[in-house]
Amino acid sequence: MHFATMAEWRSSFEVLAAGALIAGLAFAAPSQAATFQTITAFCSDFPTCSIGANPAGGLLLDSAGHLYGTAPSGGTGFGTVYELSLSGGKWTPSLLYAFCAQSGCNDGVSPESALIIDTAGNLYGVTPRGGANGGGVAFELSPTGGTWQLKVLYAFCAQGGSACTDGSTPSGVSTQSNVGLTYFGAATGQPYDGVSPLFGTTVSGGLNNAGTVFQLTNSGGTWSEKVLYSFCAKAACADGSMPGNLIVSASNSIYGTTGAVPGTVFQLKANSKLTKWKLSTLYTFCSASNCADGETPDSLSIDGTGKLLGTAASGGTGSNCNMPGGCGAAFSLVPKKKGSLEKVLYNFCSQAGCADGSLPAPGIALDTAGNLYNATNLGGNDNCFGGSTCGAVIEVAGTTEQVLHAFCPQERCTEGTSPQSGPIRDAAGNLFGTTAFGGKFGGGSVYEITP
After folding, report:
1. pTM for the full model?
2. Dist. CA 14–CA 34, nearest whole Å
């Protein structure tokens, strides 16, 4: 994924807007099913964008109601971690860390995935690039003495020379994942305890240079990395490659997706001591004619019954889709070692002008009823000011889809446009998410949707 500079975005936006005006399109806001507000806009100090720019990854909400996120641009030019605090009804952004603060960018470059938090308030995440070996890093940010300090937990591509057998390029939204690191208990909303193993994926490296699932272990404050599985270990890469999202269940199982066409859903099952892991491919997409079952899965979650729900970035049978690879689908999967049951819940771009959204973004949230919340990169409002690039926040309840908000109904997309990741949901049902572009200052935004 190329994150445009502010100048590039503004230039391309003006071309789109001019084209829309020539075509005689009306710029009317769609009717809304929920209350939308932009709670911060990035780059108020353009061109410095000191707090960050183009936020692509999802958000983290702590127990005090603070939001945390990452931006791949801004800061000193190499991305940031930021915080949003609510006081007196107003959200205030602040910079926690600007990357490439260490010599040679050993602390990492361009974070683009969601963070996790432990019980002491420390933050954990990954960067896809930078680090001592250039293969990205896993990091911890700690509020020490009022200043956030970064510690590199592991620098990838430390083994195997150029083959990077320990993995390279931890997954992010540009590689169809919104999960940086995860842990046992994350699926049920428990905070990380700070000492248990962390799990993640890399999209390259490993024994076959097709990506890995890895484990980070803390022993007395020293972290070590272990590859649990290297993909493309089977003929014709039947086990998939370029892994993305992970869900760690309570039964010593990890569920995940691979994003290389056509894509898979897999399960890694461990013994009781977590010393041996075995991979089973639960489902391979494009098993239906013309990939009607979806292709390239980019989101995955698990409900209270153990059923998996997710989105596929392409494929599907949206009747108004004009993209050769399809406009994506929402799906459910009942996992079984043999014959997992996959069901398409909704095909995006089924409405005229893709008013229902197109190309679902990585990251979904579930409510207690099992309803799915996501954002789409494109579509949402065929009258949007930016042409077809605006995107939407959507809800899928059963097999019914509803657009909660369609982006960019006004000039210059001052509320934001083109979300690259799905929203998170709080206990009251409010949704919080990011847009990578647009906003009052052109550097993207953070939004809230209240039901």
Report:
1. 0.91
2. 29
